[in-house]
Amino acid sequence: MPFYKMQASGNDFVVVDNRQGAVRDSLAFTRKVCALHTGIGADGVLFFENSKKADFKMRIINSDGSEAEACGNGFRCISKFAKEVLNFPSEFQFESVSGLIQAHVNYASIKVQLMEPVGYRSGVLKDIVNRDFHYECINTGVPHAVIFVEGLEKIDVVALGPKIRFHETFAPAGTNVNFVEVLGKDSICVRTYERGVEAETLACGTGSSASAITSTLKGYTEPPIQVRTRGGEVLTVNFKIEGKKITDVTLQGEAHFVFKGELLQ
Questions:
Q1: CATH number, domain at 69?
Q2: What pTM was estimated for this model as a whole?
Q3: What is the pLDDT of residues 112-146, one digit of tens each?
Q4: What is the Cα–Cα distance from 16 to 58, expressed in whole angstroms?
């Protein structure tokens, strides 16, 4: 079976054209190929499938075998795959679990329009590794907790991430966790502990979007916002705020092919 290895902001994926249904057990397949030493190694698998609602359907399965509703970096990778491997036009629409996604591909730069965020709320998490954390929570396709900090590089994401990700406040589904430092009126830096990957990743597109939107809701920034990721890339998040409603959320950044190959078993 042919596959492509792709990455966006260091978030890496195996991409498979599954329109013929070659992969029947997507969860077991993903756990196998994402294994670092015995498989290909990746944060997840992107399945390109047929759709009755749009030009195609994308499913993303995390490395632990759980299915994600949305993934901004995965959206950009699958868009580049559609354009450059399958010869789709520069603009198209595809189906995801979170809804229909609009995409525009301009060489390496890909812009995707995300769903309208829902569920914004805030609160305090008590005694997390001997600290209290004020958090904002918002769903940008998947749930995200956003925590604003100073000295982002000193934050122990490995220790704090799981404590917050599995906290009873976010039960039963849990949440992704973003630690954010505001750099200026149009710039933030983000580190993310991803649900499903269960580790800090080099970037998270929906997390970058959640962090940017939340930073504006708190009065720290104004869109468009440049988001610096752990992987070093700068993503651009833009949106409109109309009263209490957040609309026209777009995420723009690069996506790249790493290599292609064939699975032998």
A1: 3.10.310.10
A2: 0.92
A3: 999 999 999 999 999 999 899 999 999 999 999 99
A4: 10
222: buried, middle or exposed (CB in 10 Å: 19+, 13-18, 0-12)?
Answer: exposed
Q: What is the dihedral of CA 139, 89, 262, 74, to 10 degrees?
A: -10
Does residue 105 share a domain with residue 16? Answer: yes
Q: Count of residues for the chain?
A: 265
User: In which band, very low, low, confident or very high, does the pLDDT at 235 lie, cut at 50, 70 and 90?
Assistant: very high
Q: How high is the mean pLDDT of the chain?
A: 95
> Do residue 52 and residue 140 come from a single domain?
no
Which residues are the active-site residues?
A: 71, 204
Same domain, 135 and 187: yes
At 199 the pLDDT is: 93
Question: Which residues pair with residue 133 across a beta bridge?
Answer: 125
Cis peptide leading into residue 117 (ω within 30°): no
In terms of domains, do 244 and 258 share one? no
Residue 147 CA to residue 238 CA, distance in Å, equals 20
Which residues form the domain of 134? 118-251
Is 186 found in the same domain as 96? no
Residue type, position 89, single letter: P
Vertex 153 angle, CA 148 and 155, to 5°: 60
Burial (CB count <10 Å: 0-12, 13-18, 19+), residue 45: buried
- Structural domain tally of the chain? 2
